[in-house]
Recover the amino acids of this structure.
């Protein structure tokens, strides 16, 4: 167990994300905000295999003085796929990865007790339910971080209560026509095929997470009131514990990053994908960015449909392919055929830099919340392709409520089913070339302006961060006081 020095500060916040890039990056952003605004000293908790990435991101975000606490797994207790979740291939294996992190609990509790100055607050990922129990045992107030949208949380709670489709045959004939309407929000109507329950392993994990969230002092969500205000208020009034909407954290972080970007240092070599984007911009050629996330495994058949769809759409595109997927064969001569208007990347790309690039005009996305929010923050409309988890709820929000996206549909109507190349081509062309796509782009720019205001000095999210630290400091004076008493029943 190793750590680096903690800067002197009245408040000391320990931050502990799930060891997955999509969960870690928003909390790295939060660490940069807390340090950049001088609100608290920060100790960032991770494992040795993730420490180099964490330190580099903190340094690049202007929070290089934050302490990094490395917790090593006991011998033979590390998750099967390694210390990061990027190698998992299914929801079930993701649940196994998250549960395996509990092997860190004894070392984490010992380290949390030993922090000097003592931690005044723990911010821990909801998946690390056991970390909240450790904090409670030590009298340290904790808040949960959940990397999903407020609308998804509200819909999930309604589904747990109402059990839509329970006992019904949601087969091929019924799935397209049988719907569930959220009673509190009648505009939210979902096909039962969009509400597929998680596997048993995730249900068991969900119960533990929900209990930890309900017992915590609050809930951080990476969103902002102008985007999801009605769902935030519903949660606060009817579910609880209190939500602190402090995003988009990717924008808040930029104010404290060297050069204002939070991306690679200026002296680093320019990645090939960034050079390609620069070339597109110099030639006046708009492009679509394609990424289906870091956790969803894409079949070879689906990869071929994507490649054919992008080819026939006639658009310029940058396509980031997930490393574990077998993407070596996208069709004979495919990459030679699209050279000059398409680039396939099999390495990690800085998605935030991509979306902010002036050549990017659209984003074909799985609609994980990080991707949605980063696209919103950049003012880029989306082609919404939900694959798993809460993504169908995010997709509906993007397409029907924000009206900044086009939904693609699987050939059999089931989430996770095959999407044909014709469907992909039609949706991409509508977004990039159609009149509806132009209107979506304008609306996306307007929402991006609201996002920038939210994280600017005096904005709604700016104020939420200060209020959270101040209120939790006052609550922490009485360590015997009760938590908010939320009734949260479901997280996933």
């Amino acid at each position: 167990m190793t750590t680096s020095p903690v800067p002197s500060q009245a408040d000391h916040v320990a931050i502990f994300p799930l060891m997955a890039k999509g969960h870690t990056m928003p909390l790295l952003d939060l660490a940069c905000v807390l340090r950049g605004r001088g609100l608290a000293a920060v100790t960032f908790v991770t494992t040795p295999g993730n420490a180099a990435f964490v330190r580099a991101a903190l340094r690049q975000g202007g929070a290089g003085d934050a302490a990094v606490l490395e917790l090593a797994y006991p011998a033979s207790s590390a998750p099967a796929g390694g210390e990061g979740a990027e190698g998992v291939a299914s929801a079930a294996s993701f649940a196994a990865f998250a549960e395996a992190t509990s092997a860190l609990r004894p070392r984490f509790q010992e380290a949390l007790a030993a922090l000097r100055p003592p931690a005044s607050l723990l911010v821990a990922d909801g998946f690390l339910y056991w970390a909240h129990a450790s904090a409670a045992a030590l009298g340290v107030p904790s808040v949960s971080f959940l990397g999903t949208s407020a609308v998804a949380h509200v819909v999930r709670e309604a589904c747990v209560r109402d059990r839509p489709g329970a006992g019904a045959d949601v087969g091929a004939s019924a799935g397209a026509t049988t719907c569930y309407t959220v009673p509190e929000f009648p505009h939210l109507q979902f096909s039962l095929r969009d509400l597929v329950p998680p596997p048993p392993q995730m249900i068991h994990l969900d119960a533990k997470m929900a209990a930890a969230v309900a017992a915590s002092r609050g809930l951080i969500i990476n969103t902002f009131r102008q985007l999801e205000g009605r769902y935030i208020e519903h949660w606060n009034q009817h579910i609880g514990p209190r939500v602190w909407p402090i995003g988009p954290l990717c924008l808040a972080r930029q104010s404290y990053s060297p050069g204002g970007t939070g991306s690679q240092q200026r002296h680093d070599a320019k990645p090939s994908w960034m050079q390609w984007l620069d070339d597109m911009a110099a030639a006046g050629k708009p492009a679509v960015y394609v990424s289906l996330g870091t956790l969803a495994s894409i079949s070879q058949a689906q990869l071929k449909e994507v490649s054919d769809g992008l080819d026939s759409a006639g658009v310029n595109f940058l396509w980031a392919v997930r490393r574990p997927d077998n993407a070596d064969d996208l069709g004979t001569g495919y990459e030679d055929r699209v050279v000059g208007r398409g680039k396939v990347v099999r390495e990690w790309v800085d998605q935030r830099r991509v979306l902010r690039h002036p050549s990017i005009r659209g984003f074909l996305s799985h609609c994980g919340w990080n991707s949605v929010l980063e696209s919103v923050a950049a003012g880029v409309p989306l082609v919404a392709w939900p694959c798993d988890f809460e993504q169908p709820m995010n997709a509906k929000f993007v397409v029907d409520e924000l009206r900044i996206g086009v939904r693609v549909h699987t050939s059999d109507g089931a989430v996770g089913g095959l999407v044909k190349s014709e469907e992909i081509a039609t949706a991409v062309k509508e977004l990039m070339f159609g009149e509806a796509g132009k209107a979506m782009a304008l609306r996306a720019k307007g929402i991006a302006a609201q996002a920038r205001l939210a994280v600017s000095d005096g904005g709604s999210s700016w104020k939420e961060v200060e209020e959270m630290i101040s209120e939790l400091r006052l609550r922490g004076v009485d360590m015997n006081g009760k938590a908010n008493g939320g009734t949260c029943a479901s997280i996933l």
Observations:
- The longest strand covers residues 41-46.
- Residues 34 and 302 are 42 Å apart (CA to CA).
